[in-house]
Amino acid sequence: TGLGFGVAQRFLEQDAASVMIVGRREDVLQAAADKLLALGHVGEVRFKTCDVTVEEQVEAAVAAACNDQGQLDVMVSNAGTGLPNAVIDADVAAWSSLLDLNIIGNLLSIKHAAIKMKTNGGSIISISSIEGAAPSKFMGPYSVSKAGAEMLVKNAALELGPFGIRVNCVRPGMVPTEIVAASLPQSMQDNYIEESDLSRAGTPEEIADGVLYFASDMGKWTTGQILGVCGGAGNQKGADFSESIAMFYGADKLKEYSNQ
Questions:
Q1: Is 142 a catalytic residue?
Q2: What is the CATH number of the domain that holds 28?
Q3: Chain segment 63-88, per-residue pLDDT in tens
Q4: What phi-psi label fits residue 250: left (phi over 0), alpha (psi between -120 and 50 degrees) or beta?
Q5: What pLDDT, on the 0 to 100 scale, is given for residue 1?
Q6: How far is it, in rounded angstroms, from Cα 214 to Cα 169?
Q7: Is 233 within 8 Å of 197 (Cβ atoms)?
Q8: What are the residues facing 19 on neighbouring strands?
Q9: DSSP codes, 105-117
Q10: Which of 1, 34, 122, 187 has the smallest count of CB within 10 Å of its CB?
């Protein structure tokens, strides 16, 4: 669903020979696969249930994704979740569970994809978040886990480069998926949009375009990189000097410069 579905759809639009989607719920995977097949693309669509925190399941899922020669070209690690929690009242069990999914789940996915890619090379893409680039009040478990996942990408790129394996990360901003709608109040979603330079939410297709760059030959000399696809929401900002513009040049100029 959401970003993962958007990525699978974009790969099929680019004539991928075979796409495998992975998740914990078979009914959700079946519905997604049926929807992808209904789009009429020539590529094969398969699915496999997998809990990415269980190594045996990850190993089996990666093996199932390979072609008849045991080759895997691209792996996208998209599993993850978030949880608000205050440091002063930290729920250690909740932190551990979230770190296990967002970091160890990524690690296991990268590990077993890399094993299959050792001979012919390949591209591994992890999905992070702009929350991993800066501290977020009361969202420590998520921010810390995404920051860790991004450093994992950089370490993996360093170690796997000699095998011709590229490892990169897409850092999305606000995309109103079903999960976002269920976990963030509308006021917070609106605030994300207001803070972005382009003043709008993104789409799964736009995130998928970033993934496609890393997966394709367009990114064949790119590894160990974090690509923010966030409408500028992750752009670190200094002070706003709008009032100075109005003082020096007049209120009309401020409106002109602000496209108001």
A1: yes
A2: 3.40.50.720
A3: 999 998 999 999 999 998 888 889 99
A4: left
A5: 75
A6: 8
A7: yes
A8: 45
A9: HHHHHHHHHHHHH
A10: 187
Which letter does DSSP use for residue 24 in this model?
Answer: S
Two tokens, residue 171 = 């850092």
- Label residue 131 left, alpha or beta by phi (over 0 means left) and psi (-120 to 50 means alpha): alpha
Could you report the per-residue pLDDT of 117-164, keeping only the tens digit for each? 999 999 999 999 999 998 888 999 999 999 999 999 999 999 999 999
CA distance linking residue 83 with residue 187, whole number of Å: 18
Question: pLDDT class for 93, splitting at 50, 70, 90?
Answer: very high
Which has the closest alpha carbon to 80: 154, 157, 165, 172? 172
223 is in which domain, residue-wise? 2-257
pLDDT digits (tens, 9 = 90+) for 21-79: 999 999 999 999 999 999 999 899 999 999 999 999 999 999 999 998 999 999 999 99
Per-position b or e across 81-105, b if 16+ CB within 10 A of its CB: ebeebeeeeeeeeebeebbebbbbb
Q: CB of 125 within 8 A of CB of 215?
A: yes
The Cα 146–Cα 76 span in angstroms is: 15
Report angle CA 125, 71, 213 to the nearest 5 degrees. 30
Can you tell me the distance from the alpha carbon of 181 to that of 113, in angstroms, rounded to the nearest whole number? Answer: 31
* Helix segments in 196-240, DSSP class H: 204-215
Q: How many domains does the chain have?
A: 1
Catalytic residue among 142, 192, 213, 249: 142
Dihedral angle over CA of 123, 44, 116, 61, nearest 10: 110
> Global pTM?
0.92
